[in-house]
Amino acid sequence: MSPTPIDYNYGPRSVAVGDFNNDTCLDMTVANHIVNIIAIYLGHMDMDATFSNEKEYTTGTGSTQYMVAIGDFNNDDLLDIAVANSGTNNVGIFLGFGNGSFKTQIELSTGSARSIAISLANFNKDTSLDIATVDYGTHSISIFYGYGTDYFSTPSRYSTGYDSFPSALAIGDFNSDHYLDLAISNYGTNNIGDFNKDHRLDTIAVNNDAGAIDILLGYFEDFSSPLVYSISSGSLYIAVNDFNNDTKLDLSAVNERSSDVNILLEYGNGSFSDEIMYSTGSWPQSLAVGDFNNDTRIDQVVVNMDSDYVSILLGYGNDSFENQTRYSTGSSPYSVAASDFNKDKRVDLVITNAGDNSISIMLGYGNGPFQNPIRYSTGSSPKSVIVGDFNNDTQLDFVVVHAGSNDGNVFLGYGNGSFESPIKFPTDSYQSSVAVGDFNNDNRLDIVVTNLVGKAVSILLGYGNDLFENEIAYSTVSSSYSVVVSDINEDHRLDIVVANPENDNISIFLQDTNRILENEMSFSSSDTGGGTF
Asked: Do 311 and 280 touch, CB atoms closer than 8 A?
């Protein structure tokens, strides 16, 4: 017999199944984010697998539930319900009576976490069920320890790393020590790293003219003199990751003049090996890293401006890579970002094409190859691209800034690999780089843009609905070419690092207690020469 669907128009986002009225028939609960309710459907014992009419329980105005889970929280052998209410920053608990009905919601505050996923387990072996939440807004996971009643502990929070945007978690004993562990899936990335294992963030500058990489080791609010490592001439862009699976952060740099990419392996004390070179196309400009063939090894994609294609280098996990595989792009590709735009657990690419004012979306198959590019028009000479969720719908979007027009574009994602028409926002002319972060702690992504001609770095605060405030500009000592965002001095406020090619230095802007950027601090590098982070 064909199943009879339940017609539903209230934005169902998550479903869980259990026996709520102890009749041995499975029932279900559905989280409905449009009308802010959970619905209960009681199952009937018949051959048609039918359900009763729904019973509704409110989760609160604006709660925007993302996930629902079932368990016995108060040890009465009756099933209860937990809901992740992202919009109101709480976990809703509905205690069951055992007859298919539930008490009014009890709220557990998550602060400003915007929790979007929830799982249940007994983490501390005390016979009471605990709750784990994935906190998209604060880049963390939280554990609420249960007391076996309707009370829970205040959340214990664990960071997943700045700009990680955690989206899902799994629970299991992964190391066979009889303790439950967590595995978290993150949308985001973080390119500044701790290279000498002293728990302080360090900074990298790429020196185009000198053919070198500078490592500046962090000392709370200061940096060491640069440690200089020679690489091929014309180094323009750098990425950070663990390329040989030794848990140490390595470097990869593209070199436009020698048309190759260099790998420098890290020893764990802030020092690096000699370069290992791999050929690319002509005049490579940028790169991104990710696992393109789902073998748990880091791969690379390099954008080749004069060849009009990208090079995919699949990693073996031992610091070596396969020869490049080429995929055509638009004219004069310049920048690339890697993420999962259609939620199929496969890495996709977005590429800016400066020569024909477009971007290309290349969806990944998950085994190394990519689909043919889908093109979208942009402003004049798109320069830099970065991925984030700019309208707080948990679908990945991206921002493009332009070297040839006084604006940027926001492309909002549908979550299926396609995007809305671009939304413009005004900026100064000749933007060279863009980064994102939440500078005012409102759980909305903001944008940082460097202005090469105007000698400034600008912040555009986001409203969380795809719109941004007018830019706030901060002067730099020279032309600003590249920017990254991180918490340099570990005060839980985002800071800005800018590469200045004219003066051969990098600039640090720290946020004060009022979340205003302090005066620029400059640190010399050997010869920045137009390089990027």
From this structure: yes
Starting from the edge strand earliest in sequence, which strands make up the sheet with 456-460, in order? Answer: 431-437, 446-451, 456-460, 472-475
Return the bridge partners of 310, or none: 303, 327
Q: Please give the pLDDT value at position 220.
A: 47
The pair of structure tokens assigned to 42 is 């009681």
Tell me if 379 sits within 8 A of 408, measured CB to CB.
yes
Q: What is the DSSP letter of 373?
A: P
Helix (H) or strand (E) holding 250: strand 250-255
- pLDDT higher than 60, residue 427: yes
Higher pLDDT, 137 or 423: 423
| Contact criterion met (CB below 8 Å) for 337 and 386 | yes
Contact 502, 452 (CB under 8 A): no
Assign a CATH topology to domain 12-186: Methylamine Dehydrogenase; Chain H (2.130.10)
pTM of the model: 0.65
Q: What does the domain layout of the chain look like in residue ranges?
A: 12-186
> Does position 4 have pLDDT exceeding 90, yes or no?
no
The span from the CA of 193 to the CA of 199, in Å, is 9
To which H or E segment does residue 71 belong? strand 65-71
Place of tokens 């039918």: 50
C-alpha closest to that of 100 among 216, 193, 212, 19: 19
Helix (H, G, I), strand (E, B) or coil at 26: coil
Task: Report pLDDT for 526.
Answer: 47
Residue 211 has pLDDT above 60, yes or no: no
DSSP per residue, 3-23: --PPP--S-EEEEEEE-SSSS
| Spatial distance between the Cα atoms of 263 and 533, rounded to a whole number of angstroms | 15
